[in-house]
Write a structure and sequence with these properties.
Helix content is 56%, strand content 10%. It has four helices and four strands. Helix 1 runs antiparallel to helix 2 and helix 1 packs across helix 3. The radius of gyration is 17 Å and the shape is flat. The two termini are 28 Å apart. 10% of the residues are buried.
């Protein structure tokens, strides 16, 4: 998950590099995995702004506070006998996976 400031900095660097025909500079500054995450987060925020303009209140993930599409939200999840997402929570798929990894790491450390 990226912050709004990271997203803004990325967009500014992207504009500068394309304005100056310095595409290699972006490749050296941002690894592909970071670019993918930034673009995904920027897209999610743009969708949320569109929903606000249409007077639709977007649902936000309880963990990362990013907008979540209704068909991608997780309202309840378990991993064996452990509850990852409780009823009434609204969590995105990424955060559910992070919760699962945290519980697995916690059990391996014990």
């Amino acid at each position: 998950m990226t912050t709004i400031q990271q997203q803004i900095s990325f967009v500014e660097a992207l504009r500068d590099s394309f304005d100056n025909n310095q595409r290699e500079a972006m490749q050296n500054t941002y690894p592909p995995s970071v670019v993918a995450e930034l673009l995904r987060d920027i897209h999610e925020n743009l969708v949320a702004v569109k929903q606000l303009q249409l007077a639709q209140t977007p649902k936000l993930c309880n963990d990362c506070n990013q907008p979540v599409k209704p068909n991608h939200a997780i309202h309840f999840a378990t991993d064996g006998d452990k509850v990852l997402v409780h009823r009434g929570e609204y969590v995105c798929e990424r955060c559910t996976e992070l919760r699962k990894l945290k519980t697995e790491n916690h059990h391996t450390q014990l």
